[in-house]
Amino acid sequence: NEPEVRFNIAYGGYDAVILQHVAHPMGDLSVMAQSGRQLIRWVQESGADNPLYDMITKADGESAQAEMSGAYRKLQEETGCELAPVGDRWWAYHRAHPEIELYAEDGQHASETGSRLAAATIAEVVLNSTK
Questions:
Q1: What is the DSSP secondary structure assignment for residue 8, as one 8-state letter?
Q2: What is the pTM of this model?
Q3: Alpha carbon distance, N-terminus to C-terminus of the chain
Q4: CB-side exposure of 60: number of CA atoms within 13 Å?
Q5: Which candidate, 92, 49, 47, places its Cα nearest to that of 69?
Q6: How far is CA 90 from CA 15, 50, 69, in A?
Q7: CA nearest neighbour of 122 among 86, 80, 94, 74
Q8: What is residue 129's predicted lDDT score, i.e. its pLDDT?
Q9: Alpha-carbon distance 129 to 131, whole Å?
Q10: Which is nearest to 74 in space by CA: 36, 106, 111, 107?
Q11: What would the mean pLDDT of 26-37 be, rounded to a whole number?
Q12: What is the DSSP-derived secondary structure letter of residue 3?
C-alpha cells in the first residue's frame, strides 16, 4: 500500500523483482494472496520477471513446508508468474546431506550454505526465464 513500491517497480528498470511473504510465522495467507496478486500485476506491467521466493520453514518445521509451498504454488497458478522452489529444494538437500547445516544458529534463517542454496535456486529460475 506504499506508493513508492509501485513507483519503484514501474520505473526501477529491474530485470527481475523477487517476491516473498513473511515466513515465521507465515501469517495471513489471504493477505499474501491479495498483496501478491497486486505486486505481481505491477511487476508484469513493468516487463520484469517476477519469481516468487518459496521460503523455508523453521529448522523444526519440515512438516509445515507443504502448506507454505502450497500457498506459493497457488499464487503462481493464479498469476502465471515463476516460482523459485527454495523450500522444496532445501528439504530435499537436507535429507540427502544431513551432515551439512543449512540453518543459522537461530534455526529460522539460512546459514551461509543455506543462503547459497536459496540464491542458486532463485538464480536458476531468473536466468532460465522464458522472457
A1: H
A2: 0.84
A3: 28
A4: 4
A5: 92
A6: 25, 21, 12
A7: 86
A8: 75
A9: 5
A10: 36
A11: 84
A12: H
Distance CA 129, CA 36 (A): 19
**Residue pointed to by grid coordinates 523483482:** 17
C-alpha cell at 106: 537461530
Instruction: Write out pLDDT tens, residues 67-87.
Output: 888 888 999 999 999 999 999
Dihedral sign (CA 3, 5, 6, 12): positive
Cβ atoms of 9 and 43 within 8 Å: the answer is yes
* Beta carbons within 10 angstroms of residue 127's beta carbon: 9
What are the φ/ψ torsions at residue 92 (nearest 5 degrees)?
Answer: -65, -40
Mean pLDDT score across all residues of the chain: 89
Planar angle of CA 51, 8, 131, nearest 5 degrees: 35
